[in-house]
Design a protein that fits this description.
The complex is a heterodimer of chains A (about 160) and B (about 575). Chain A has about 160 residues and is α/β, with parallel strands linked by helices. Chain A contains five helices and seven strands. Chain A starts with a strand and ends with a helix. Chains A and B meet through helix 2, helix 3, helix 4 and helix 5 of A and helix 1, helix 2, helix 5, helix 6 and helix 9 of B.
């Protein structure tokens, strides 16, 4: 899991009103992306920030140009983005960065990691050391398959 | 019954260690109370009216005597000497200080138990038929499927923060003893014409403020596809279920709102998982895995069918109380020469579903002596011994009598379901236990109770419906009006059992009553039934035939405080 710090993050989120022309490390909202997607060159990787209501399958054709998908947790107990991440990885084979933003707390780490997130921007005040520890409690893995380990326990043992 | 593997054991230990880390951060001030709340809930810890409450998972109701002994020890050492069994086949402690919560989880882990997903907006502990694996009317033993579902749903990462709680029940018999139509997902095991095993899948049932009966999603799903299909259902719910209003967040509301579109979405999702997803087909259950799990549920070696029948009067006329107990508390069994015995937790002096430490010890001893160390928790809040030899019934009756488990009232009015209510629960609007106690006291004449026959009386202290008031032949719901306790009374509900008829919510008979009026109201309902019943007609059938008007009329005469309002 990559811990992103706002001060050193290279991705730039432009205000909604600004027109986002092609450029390196541009993080666009879905509205901005939809305005420029047809003109966006294939060789300039872009980042998109999606609300948790977006059907990520509708972006399937865009994914080769997208280097970063930032998914939002408006409240940490709103689990919709876990399904978005799962579909991006397991169904759409998305290999770029999936970043958790918004209300991202220490104890979400195992769920995020197993659903396909590989980067997080922790909420202000959350301790990175606690978040790292939160990823260590189940060294022998879990019962069901997930994005990291697609096989359930029974398929791992029987195989 | 299922035995933990090394993996299961280290997993529960790992979960206990994770919880201890969360508790430590909370006590140290790093993890705020609001943020600790969903985490502790998913381990079974509520903060209640007086103290924390711990809900312990008893997967599909199967409990070993050594586990019950440990619960007795915990009740004695950490709580106030008692435990409560719930309508979801779980167990609840009420007075363990939160500082000791991590120690409690370690004590549970010592006997392969935990509180994982007994609360919170996640897939809850799976429930099933109390007679699973021993019922004479069984089509398929549901327990291996329950265990496979338990494993799949445990810490499933994508579905830990759903819009609302999610409950799954599984039945494998002709008779539905698991109220499957009242669950978010209800699974009925069956065999098709070719003899293949599959599930009829119901989705979108639920109690609460808006009672809804589940709709059929598929009539026959091959058994090995069940994890994939449930993944599809829960993913559609996670994506589209409402999150703006907790009262409209259950899947039943989504199913009602979307209708066929919901089922089309589930179907499309199911196909995509199998066709496209990495790991999608990996969750089709291989026969070898099923066989591995099913091996835990084969008939115990010590069970030997005994032919020749059972005659309680073989050595002279049996005492009447024994015969009554045989009639009400002892049930037919798959194996010749065996019976299932309910230990009634419905008796004067203790709330429905409560047991003391001493009684837990006694039940564990009875289980070891007469039932191969196994017990079940029923959704009617009783305990059950699943492997009793007919030859031991007289001895079991004596032991049950001595321990206070022999009230011969199973299925009768006093075998009522009740949540802990406002005495203990912070969510409750009104108390359930004084109402339950008053009714128990009022109907203490066994002959009269037997004459009334089968009646399901269900009491909930609030709309959350933990006491299943919607499914009662008589349902009582506690409500709060201007800070006072009031009770709404309804009749003719059904859990979906053969006796009660197709699942249907009970109908409210009129404006709510004051607490003091409730015993009189129940008396009036019973009198109305007595006057109106046809020969051999049960309460629920009479109520359905005559409708609510006669009940309303009779109960209005009981009103004192509420007379003006009425």
């Amino acid at each position: 899991m990559k811990f992103i710090h706002r001060a050193t993050d290279s991705w730039l989120l432009l205000p909604d009103s600004e027109i986002a022309g092609p450029g390196p490390h541009r993080l666009l909202t879905l509205v901005q992306w939809e305005a420029v997607r047809d003109a966006w060159p294939a060789n300039v990787p872009v980042g998109v920030l999606l609300p948790n209501t977006t059907d990520v399958e509708s972006l399937a054709a865009d994914l080769p140009r997208i280097a970063l998908v930032a998914l939002e947790f408006p409240k940490w107990v709103d689990g919709r983005a876990y399904s978005q991440a799962h579909i991006l990885r397991a169904r759409l084979r998305y290999a770029g960065e999936i970043r958790a933003t918004g209300e991202v707390l220490v104890d979400m780490m195992p769920l995020l990691q197993r659903s396909g997130f590989d980067a997080v921007v922790l909420r202000e005040g959350e301790r990175q050391s606690s978040a790292e520890r939160a990823l260590t409690f189940f060294p022998a893995g879990h019962y069901q398959g997930d994005v990291l380990q697609p096989k359930p326990l029974f398929a791992r043992e029987v195989a | 019954m299922y035995q933990y593997t090394e993996f299961d054991r280290q997993f529960v230990r790992a979960r206990a260690a994770q919880f201890r880390d969360q508790l430590d951060r909370n006590l140290a001030g790093e993890l705020g109370d609001d943020e600790f709340r969903p985490l502790r809930l998913q381990n079974g810890w509520y903060i209640q009216r007086h103290a924390p409450m711990l809900r312990v998972a008893i997967p599909y109701g199967e409990l070993a005597s050594r586990q019950l002994r440990q619960l007795a020890r915990m009740a004695k050492e950490l709580d106030r000497d008692f435990l409560h069994f719930t309508t979801r086949q779980n167990a609840q402690f009420n007075w363990i200080p939160i500082e000791k919560s991590a120690d409690a989880m370690d004590l549970l882990a010592d006997v392969d138990m935990h509180g994982i997903q007994t609360s919170g907006n996640c897939i809850r502990n799976i429930t099933s038929d109390v007679l699973a694996g021993i019922a004479p009317d069984e089509i398929v033993d549901p327990r291996p499927y329950c265990e496979l579902l338990r494993q799949w749903s445990t810490l499933q990462p994508e579905f830990a923060f759903l819009p609302r709680k999610f409950k799954i029940a599984v039945s494998g018999s002709l008779e539905d003893r698991a109220a499957i139509a009242w669950h978010d997902i209800g699974l009925q095991l069956l065999k098709n014409e070719a003899g293949e095993i599959g599930f009829k899948v119901l989705v979108g049932g639920g109690m609460g403020r808006t009672p809804v009966i589940g709709s059929v999603a598929t009539e026959f799903l091959p058994w090995n596809q069940i994890l994939v299909y449930i993944e599809a259902v829960v993913r559609v719910y996670n994506r589209f279920g409402r999150r703006d209003n907790a009262y409209k967040a259950r899947i039943k509301i989504l199913v009602k709102a979307e209708g066929q579109k919901f089922f089309d979405q589930v179907d499309a999702e199911y196909r995509k998982i199998l066709a496209d997803d990495v790991g999608g087909t990996a969750h089709i259950i291989p026969q070898a895995e099923f066989d591995r799990v099913a091996a835990f549920f084969t008939r115990p070696d010590k069970v030997r069918p005994a032919i020749g029948g059972f005659d309680p009067n073989r050595t002279g006329a049996a005492p009447v109380p024994f015969l009554r107990w045989l009639d009400r508390n002892v049930h037919a069994h798959q194996i010749e020469g065996y019976r299932a015995v309910t230990l009634s937790l419905k008796r004067p002096g203790l709330p429905p579903g409560d047991v003391t430490s001493a009684q837990m010890e006694a039940a564990a001893t009875m289980s070891d002596r007469y039932s191969l160390g196994e017990l079940r928790v029923s959704h009617d809040q009783n305990l059950l011994l699943p492997w009793v030899r007919e030859a031991d019934l007289r001895a079991v009756w004596h032991a049950a009598t001595e321990a206070g488990f022999a009230t011969p009232n199973i299925g009768l009015l006093t075998d009522m379901i009740a949540c802990p209510g406002g005495d203990l629960c912070a969510l409750a609007n009104a108390r359930s236990l004084p109402i339950a106690a008053a009714i128990t006291e009022q109907f203490d004449d066994l002959d009269a109770l037997l004459d009334l026959g089968d009646i399901d009386l269900h009491i909930s202290g609030c709309m959350n419906s933990c006491g299943h008031h919607h499914t009662g032949h008589i349902g009582i719901l506690g409500i709060d009006k201007d800070g006072a306790e009031w009770y709404q009374v309804s009749v003719a509900g059904s859990d979906g059992s053969t006796l009660s008829g197709a699942a249907v919510p009970a109908k409210v008979i009129g404006p709510s009553f004051a607490a003091e009026e409730v015993p009189g109201v129940i008396q009036a309902l019973i009198e109305t039934y007595r006057e109106q019943r046809a020969a051999n007609e049960r309460f629920v059938d009479t109520a359905r035939r005559i409708g609510i008007a006669p009940f309303r009329k009779a109960t209005d005469l009981v009103r004192r405080e509420t007379a003006v309002a009425a």
